Amino acid sequence: MKITVKVYVCKICGEAYIGTEAPSRCPFCGAFEKYFVESTKYDDTGAWDVELNDKDKANVEKALEVEISNNIFYKCASTKVPELDGQKLFKILAKVEGEHAAVWKKILKLDKIDFPKYDKCASKYKPNLEESHSREDRAIKFYGEAAAEAKSPRVKEIFKAFLEVETDHLHLSEERL
């Protein structure tokens, strides 16, 4: 039996994935399977060359700040909580939020992102889960509003995709609280 392996591309973050089928979630940005296409059927030329009106630009800049803040919080929490589940949870959340920041960086045509040092997270799992829940709840509300306001179809698509991902993150903290 021959197994057919394909290359799939996430239309949200632009990363490629090799597999027999598209993943249920992007292993990089967390976008749902519906955002994956076979690489042979997708040309992402211009995907990052987005014209931003003032409102879209302001929302994308705010989204970048949100993702940087969440990334550094999760990195901190992953190193301070003693529970292995918490370490793994916060580490993967930091990676996903970092990928979200990278997407906004590309949209804003920035050369780099500065991730400041952060050490104000708790040393206990539950307070960090509560903070995670609060952060994800704020992100969900903001991304919903930003998606509704977006004029650029590309920006709207990214906000909608990240809204779904942040909702997944919220469920992760809800299940553990």
Secondary structure elements and their pairing?
Layout: E1 6-10, E2 16-19, E3 36-38, H1 54-80, H2 84-108, H3 125-149, H4 153-176
Antiparallel strand pairs: 1-2, 1-3
What does this structure look like?
- The chain has 177 residues and is mainly alpha-helical.
- Helices cover 57% and strands 7% of the residues.
- It has 4 helices and 3 strands, in the order E-E-E-H-H-H-H.
- The chain has a 3-stranded antiparallel β-sheet, with no helix packed on it.
- A hairpin with a 5-residue loop joins strand 1 and strand 2.
- The protein is globular.
- The mean pLDDT is 97.
Features:
single chain, 177 residues, mainly alpha, Rubrerythrin, domain 2, Ferritin, 2 domains, 3-stranded antiparallel β-sheet, globular
Topology as a string of helices (H) and strands (E): EEEHHHH
Count of distinct structural domains = 2
CATH level 1 class label of the largest domain: Mainly Alpha
The helix count comes to 4
CATH superfamily of the largest domain: Ferritin, core subunit, four-helix bundle
Query: What is the rounded Rg?
Result: 17 Å
Distance between the termini: 46 Å
What can be said about the biggest beta sheet? 3 strands, antiparallel
Shape: globular
Sheet with most strands: strand arrangement:
2-1-3
Please name the CATH topology of the largest domain. Ferritin
Structure class: mainly alpha
Strand content is 5-15%
Mean pLDDT: 97
